[in-house]
Structures are given as structure tokens and as C-alpha cells.
Amino acid sequence: MTVITHVQRRSRLAEMVDRPGGVSVGVALAQAQANLGGLRDQACAIIADNIAVLLAEPAPGMIEALRLDLAYSASNQIIDAASPFAMDDLCTAAKGLCDLLDAAPRQGGFDWRIATVHAQAMKLLLSLPTDAAAPRAAIVDNLAEVLKRKLPATPQTAHQTAHQAAHQAAHHAVQPTA
Prior knowledge:
- This protein is mostly helical.
- Helices cover 69% and strands 0% of the residues.
């Protein structure tokens, strides 16, 4: 009878993990939070700039598809800037606008007042103190009502699903879990 033996090698990663020294998880999380804290002002500036893009008058003769793409990009950048700082209400408002823009007809006919309402709501959310939970919740709830009324009741497109998954993955990669 033949016996086959496998020599198990210890990985370099396992050796590195077992070595003394390094940084504890608690210290690493505190350092990461301090690093993010320094970037919060920059993120708020990016959010404000993109809200201004959403509120700006379009160039005369701008093609509807291009205008939709620019608004979608601005709303997407708001999500990207807000998510690492747990500005969930801003992310929700911007995601709702992305969903509306994604469902909009490319040849024209989108009601741009909806985008203006979302942008003004995001501007207000950005200006409210973080502890103003009731006003923030009221704004998000009202935007959800707009979505219910204006968004067609169709299954998500592949683009929406991929977009949502990417933002959730990015958000969870940065946020510490208990």
C-alpha cells in the first residue's frame, strides 16, 4: 500500500500575524478615524460643489442625455464623499436622485424640478447639525415619498444593482463593525 504525505508549509502571512509587535485593532481604528476626521471638511466641500452643480442652470441647448449624465455624476460624487463619514441621510437623498435619473427617459421629458428638490434637500441636510435627527428624518422621509410617486415600479436595472452594490461595499469597507 502506498501512503501519500503532504508537507504543509506555513504561510508568510501566518508568520507575520504571529510575530509580536504591530498595532492593536483598537489603535488602528482610532488612527483611521483620526485620518478620516481630517478629510471631513474636504468631503463637505466636494458635496457642496456637487450640490451647486445640481442647482446650476444648464447650458443653453444642452442635450438631455448629457444633462442627465452630469446630474447623475454629481449625485454619485455626493455619495462617494459622504459615505466614509456616515452621512447616511445625504447618501440616501443622493441615491434616490441617482435612481430617478437612471430611470429618466434619455430623449427628454424628465421633470427637473425633482432634481432641484433633491439638491435643495441635500443642501439643507449638509447645513443641519449632525444631532438634528428629527429634521433629517423628515427630509429623508419626504424624499422617499417623492421616489414612491415618481419612480416607475420596475425591477432594478443591472446598472442600478451594480451601482448600489459598489457603494454598499465601499461604505462597509470603511465603517468599523462591532
